[in-house]
Amino acid sequence: METERLRLTPIGPHLADELFRLHQDRGIARWYGNWTRADAEARAAEIGRSWQRDGVGKWLAYHRESGELLGRGGLSYQDVDGARRLEIGWAVREVQWGNGYATEIGLAGLACARELRATEVAAFTEVHNVRSRAVMERLGFTYRHDFPHRGEPFALYAISVES
């Protein structure tokens, strides 16, 4: 899939090294922890299975012209706040924060959700992640409430995507 500035490539086991490299970024590791190569291999395999099983998953995001690895994002099904929901997320290398890439990844994910005829998409982040929350609001998501996730307070947002 391509957007105005991005080439979005579905993650699978063949991209484990790229996923590992991405998660070595200080800004991404701040939110997702320090990944080992084994962590990246397991996550890439899991995302590959998600693409096969659910028809959705996460992409690696590359700059269309330069080929630079910028981040990742996309859709997945997650147990969120006690329900299985179609969830959207993104992570962008710290050096690229503020350039609109998270919003562009989010718009691509919402377009896919519409193609799937989804009625709603959820997004969530740590309550203190103001940058991610701003992206959610820029995309039209509405704050619902805080909820506990992995022992931390997270903010849940949702958007209706019916055509």
Keywords:
163 residues, alpha+beta, Aminopeptidase, four-stranded antiparallel β-sheet, transferase, acyltransferase activity, Acyl_CoA_acyltransferase, EC 2.3.-.-
Briefly, what CATH class? Alpha Beta
CATH superfamily, by name, is Gcn5-related N-acetyltransferase (GNAT)
Distance between the termini: 21 Å
Q: How would you state the average pLDDT, rounded? A: 95
Helix content: 25-40%
CATH architecture: 3-Layer(aba) Sandwich
**Largest beta sheet, briefly?**
4 strands, antiparallel
What oligomeric state is this? single chain
Strand segment tally: 7
Number of helices: 5
Strand fraction: 25-35%
**Residue windows where pLDDT falls under 50 for at least 5 positions:** none
Largest sheet: spatial strand order: 1-2-3-4
CATH topology: Aminopeptidase
Strand-pairing-aware structural class: alpha+beta
Radius of gyration (CA) equals 15 Å
Sum up the overall morphology in one term: globular
Number of domains: 1
How do the helices and strands follow one another from N- to C-terminus?
EHHHEEEHEHEE
Write the layout of secondary structure elements.
Layout: E1 6-10, H1 16-22, H2 26-32, H3 37-54, E2 58-63, E3 69-80, E4 83-92, H4 101-115, E5 120-126, H5 130-138, E6 142-149, E7 152-160
Antiparallel strand pairs: 1-2, 2-3, 3-4, 5-7, 6-7
Helix pairs in contact: 1-3
Keywords: Acyltransferase, Transferase
EC number: 2.3.-.-
InterPro entries: Acyl_CoA_acyltransferase (IPR016181), GNAT_dom (IPR000182), N-acetyltransferase (IPR051531)
